[in-house]
């Protein structure tokens, strides 16, 4: 029963993520003077709606799987709309609201005749199109900031010093139990640089200098990666290591540190997403590692059930994912619309709207089909 609550929370979270994207379009369009017909939360039948006096309609709809921002377009222009605006503009109290449906679509009577979205300058349209992904990325920075402030990062504390059976001395003789490693070869451990990543390229026989906190003092010690033999009651194990085992302890971050690290941390996650997409195209990552909307909701619910810390990290990943995915030049997505608008800008004339519309419609249908297939494959793989 509790898991279904987490599913509900996950649906709400995903809805908020999409709404942040659509609000980005809305905010940019308002800033640039675009007319907006409707901002909707959800799809399908209308549950609640409120129209502002300038004609903008805010709606709550029955299917909570996203939302949309509908701009005033050429299709909204009516033959008598300009005459109606002129008539109402002549009245002294025209600014009190919108008198007819045509005027409601066109805007307030005191406003100049609105320009359809298609006739706005290309650079303005490109800004509006990219604003959704921009807001998603900004939200990723916020989630990353909260995550880093709450969780911080971890540093290794030495818990065991393994002994060389030939000499009877610890392999890492310069370290002591309880030492907390805070730097490797002068590079401080941080959100971006863990002990494992800083020592990943160290080969057997090579040494590094680690800085540790010991009894409140900073001490430098040299450790060497070597072939280590570990004897326990359960038997003998061997491996290439530094001759220590450790427990990860939390390193807290200040507000300023969390704010500063949130940007490189988010960009690191974003680059991981881009790399994964590239590996998916080349076949190095199986489709079963991807997730559609259903898989995403299930994953969010799982993380919410586990720990708030994991959920915050996953929210950063989702927000980055939405930003990157939407700027891909896939028909139906913002990225492809930007490409078409840029072509129009260079050519000096628009591409045939029916052709462009057909391309986006087909692309969107194929995209929906693809994510559904990914969800089905993921469900089968997990079953």
Overall pLDDT: 78
Percent of residues in helices:
40-55%
Gyration radius, rounded: 28 Å
Structural class: alpha+beta
Number of domains: 3
What is the number of strand segments? 10
What are the low-pLDDT stretches, counting only 5+ consecutive residues below 50? 80-110
Order of helices and strands: HEEHHHEEEHEEEEEHHHHH
Distance between the termini: 20 Å
Number of helices: 10
Q: Judging from the principal axes of the Cα atoms, what is the shape?
A: elongated
Instruction: Please give the largest β-sheet.
Output: 4 strands, antiparallel
Q: How much beta, percentage-wise? A: 15-25%
Going across the biggest sheet, name each strand in turn: 5-4-6-7
Structure commentary:
Strand 6 and strand 7 form a beta hairpin. The protein contains 10 helices and 10 strands. By secondary structure, it is of the alpha+beta class. The chain has helices at 2-31, 81-89, 101-106, 122-151, 195-198, 255-282, 293-306, 308-326, 334-347, 353-382, and strands spanning 36-51, 57-71, 153-161, 180-184, 187-188, 207-214, 217-224, 226-232, 235-241, 244-251. Helix 4 (122-151) packs antiparallel against helix 9 and helix 7 packs antiparallel against helix 8 (308-326). Helix content is 48%, strand content 22%.
